[in-house]
Amino acid sequence: MTVDSRPPKAASNPRFQVTEKIRMRVARPLRPTPAGGGKPPRKGGTPRLRLPEAPRPLAPRDSRWWAGAAILTVSLLLVGFVAHVALFSVFQHHRAQDLAYHELRSTLAKAETPVGQLDLDAELVTSGTPVALLQIDAIDLSEVVSEGTTSEVLRAGAGHRRDSVMPGQAGTSVILARQATYGGPFGGLSRLQPGDDITVTTGQGTSTFQVFGLRRAGDPLPEALRAKEGRLELMTADGLALFPSGVLHVDAELTSTVQSTPTKVLAYPALPPAERAMGQDAGGWASSFFVLVFFVASGIGLWWLWTRWGRWQAWLVGVPVMLVLGVTTADTVMNALPNLL
Questions:
Q1: What are 108-154's pLDDT values in tens digits?
Q2: Residue 37 falls within a domain, yes or no?
Q3: Residue 188 domain-assigned?
Q4: Which of 56, 215, 281, 286 is the 20 to 30 A CA-CA neighbour of 34?
């Protein structure tokens, strides 16, 4: 039996072909159109469904949120304070000493360095004016001494108490400096021993002293000076750094020729409290409070950025700013603390 493989006559009919095409087009499945319009997916692909994005969860505003903000703010403030005490204040001290040394060398060459309480214009010597160079080989110290002993002056180095005579003159010359902060120039005074030499250069020349004792609160005072004798007294904080237990005094007697002594116009009772040992600037706390409020406001702003931008954006922008403000706050607070810290 033979099978005819030719197509049926109906398939060759043009009318039949048109009808078949219409039937195939109607039976073809429609491609899904994505929501919101746009082009349909490519042939053979899977339609992409866009789900609505979930809202970003905001930081909780309960007590835990505020506790976290407070802890972060205080932590950054402490980090800024430590960075200032251990690093930035040291750089400030070195920079101030370089400038003071160049100024002192210039005034010594011109014979314009103050040698008394009054300057060439018969006015009190301006606070912060370099007046001497103090050198102690036993503790490897070389420090420019400026006039005045306020917290602001002692940030730059050692300071000469204005009511006392200049080193090398008849009487007791008193020099104060910090123990730990801003380079801690007098941090090694407790290592001095009787017999150690001290050299001081002023506008009248170089004078030498010899240490004869260290004393603290409650120790007997040295004998009163006789006429035409000179003495040097160095003072700084005693005890742990930033936690003083009192004031350390180092007494040294003048071993070189006594220099001429100008008339004194300022006595110790007239000396402002801020210029005495462990003195504090009364107006320093007001400035510190203002800067601290600004720092706290910045900490709140950092947490607000956390909720708006995201965690890493807030850390990247906010933390460096907070550290800078922390160092600035610490620098302001140091002016309000005792001047020998």
A1: 999 999 999 998 888 999 999 999 999 999 999 999 999 999 999 99
A2: no
A3: yes
A4: 56
- Where is 311: in which H helix or E strand? helix 311-336
Instruction: Transcribe 6-21 into DSSP letters.
Output: SPPGGGG-HHHHHHHH
Q: Report the alpha-carbon distance of residue 266 to residue 248 in Å, rounded.
A: 24
Host domain of residue 265: 63-341
Contact between residue 85 and residue 333 where contact means Cβ atoms under 8 Å apart:
no
Question: What does the radius of gyration of the chain's CA atoms come to, in whole angstroms?
Answer: 40
Q: What is the pLDDT of residues 60-96, one digit of tens each?
A: 456 776 776 677 677 767 777 777 777 788 999 999 9
Number of structural domains (the chain) is 1
DSSP state of 45: P
Q: What CATH number should be reported for the domain holding residue 148?
A: 2.40.260.10
In 119-147, which positions are buried (b, 16+ CB within 10 angstroms) versus exposed (e)? beeeeebeebbbbbbbebeeeebebbbbb
Q: How far apart are CA 193 and CA 214, in angstroms?
A: 8
Residue 10 placed within a domain: no
